[in-house]
Amino acid sequence: MANQPHHIASWHCISKCITEGGSGFEKANGFSLYDFSSEISELGNYFKEGMACTSRIVMKAILSNYKDGFEGVGLIAHVGGSIGAAVAEIVNAHPHIRGINFDLPDVVARAPRYPDVTQLGIGSPPEQMEGIQFHQFGGDMFDAIPNADAIFMKVK
């Protein structure tokens, strides 16, 4: 993916990014990396798996150092959770927690099944989670987000 022409073009805008701020990808191509990844499925899959890999590494570090942080949480929703890797790590580490991965419908539609995690079918309402450990749910966070004891978002 790093050698893809749209990505290489981003590097030619690095001085503009330093002086003006913003994304080199957007400056070079006129659209965001997220939009690009959602339009070209092969690259989108690489992008999502790369993000999931990073999430798994980061979440293992968070979970090993933030041991008491999840006490009292029964249901956690990861808003903008892509294919669900981060919230799957949380529910694996804390079996008492049920998790919702919430992202755009086309993103969660491509999400994998996670081993050792009982999942509700994609797209079913979160209210049907009784006895279910993990749920992939599609929607738009600017319209509404699922109710939960804790909301989890990663920001740049």
Helices and strands in order:
Blueprint (H helix, E strand, L loop, with lengths): L4 H7 L2 H7 L3 H6 L3 H7 L1 H25 L9 E5 L5 H9 L4 E6 L1 H4 L10 E2 L13 E5 L11 E3 L4
Parallel strand pairs: 1-2, 1-5, 2-4, 3-4
Q: How would you characterize this protein structure?
A:
It is a single chain. It contains seven helices and five strands, in the order H-H-H-H-H-E-H-E-H-E-E-E. It has helices at 5-11, 14-20, 24-29, 33-39, 41-65, 85-93, 105-108; strands at residues 75-79, 98-103, 119-120, 134-138, 150-152. The chain has a five-stranded parallel beta sheet. Helix 6 (85-93) links the parallel strand 1 (75-79) and strand 2 (98-103). Helix 4 (33-39) crosses helix 5 (41-65) and helix 5 runs parallel beside helix 6 (85-93). The chain is elongated, with a radius of gyration of 17 Å. The two termini are 20 Å apart.
> Spatial order of the strands in the main sheet?
3-4-2-1-5
- The count of β-strands is 5
Which structural category fits the helices and strands? alpha/beta
Strand content: 5-15%
Largest sheet: 5 strands, parallel
CATH superfamily of the largest domain: Vaccinia Virus protein VP39
CATH architecture of the largest domain, by name, is 3-Layer(aba) Sandwich
Estimated helix fraction: 40-55%
Give the H and E element order: HHHHHEHEHEEE
Uncertain residue ranges: none
